[in-house]
Amino acid sequence: MLSYEDTAWTVYIILFFLFSGLLVIQSRNHVILMLPFILFSVLSMIAHIAMIARRYNHETSLLVVASRSPAVSYLSMFSLFLYIGLVEYELIDIEQSKTRRGGGESAITVQFAKRRKPASYWLAIGLAFVYCSVTIALFVLMVVLDDSKPSTRASEAALVTVLILLTLLLTRRSRIVLFVLLVLALTGLSLEMWLLHAMVKDPATADANSVFSISTWLLMEALLVYFPIMMMLALVSWKPGSLGSVAAAAAAAEATTTTANTQSTRLEQQQQ
User: Fold this and answer.
1) How confident is the model over 76-96, as pLDDT tens digits?
2) Could you tell me the CA-to-CA distances from 125 to 83, 98, 129, 140, 241 in Å, in that order?
């Protein structure tokens, strides 16, 4: 009979499998855009299968369940693929916005603007490199250091908190709503990892099942981590070409405003 955590992780395996299939189907027309999300789904599915296959002497304490959670062990690193996928959408949005702003410009000006990348473009690429560096550091910590030590768990939780800050820096400048879902998922992961640090530091905290039980942990994980991730994958696999619709609408409105202001300025100059 499957335990509570194995049952939950089996459900996630099925969901990741379904989303992997849907993303592969969508990748026929959006190969580059879909590839990071496909990698995330496939790797997450494999990680959950591996955790179910690994048995820890059939222990079912809260500390053991939290320590072998695929979300804590793997999803924070795999989030790099989600971040890269969303950065791709952000770069496309930036290019489209720049093209719309140049709608009333001369051909020479438009060609020059296409060659010149705005600061937001390089900011998105720079943040992606920093995000990648932090996830590599997180991987090194998990592999090299002893995760039974509170200092190791604190370092891992701190790095996930840094990932949240990096995502927020881009979210403030981005019109892609999916970044918000990534922030929510990373916040849930950070909360879990800080709680795990507290349990490793003081095992009595994990034994207080009357306050924080295994079922409570799994429910918190489902709502704060997996739900935003599944929503993100659902939106991407449903209609990837429409993810920039909000961005397009905002950019079109901004372009309209800019054009109106330009025309107004020209009229004022002609009257003078």
Assistant:
1) 999 999 999 989 888 888 877
2) 11, 17, 6, 23, 21
The CA-to-CA distance between both ends of the chain, in Å, stands at: 85
Take residue 218 and report the two structure tokens written for it: 């799994």
Q: CA 179 to CA 189: how far, in whole Å?
A: 15
For 57: left if phi > 0, alpha if psi spans -120 to 50, otherwise beta; the answer is left
How is residue 149 annotated by DSSP?
Answer: S
Task: Name the CA radius of gyration of the chain, rounded.
Answer: 23
Which amino acid is it at 75?
L
Among residues 163, 199, 190, the alpha carbon closest in space to that of 67 is found at: 199
**If you write DSSP's letter for every residue of 190-249 in order, what string do you get?**
HHHHHHHHHHHH-HHHHH-TTTS-HHHHHHHHIIIIIHHHHHHHHHHHH-GGGTTHHHHH
pTM: 0.81
Question: CA 98, CA 255: separation in Å to the nearest integer?
Answer: 9
Backbone angles phi, psi at 56, to 5 degrees: -110, 65
Specify whether the CB–CB gap between 246 and 175 falls below 8 A. yes
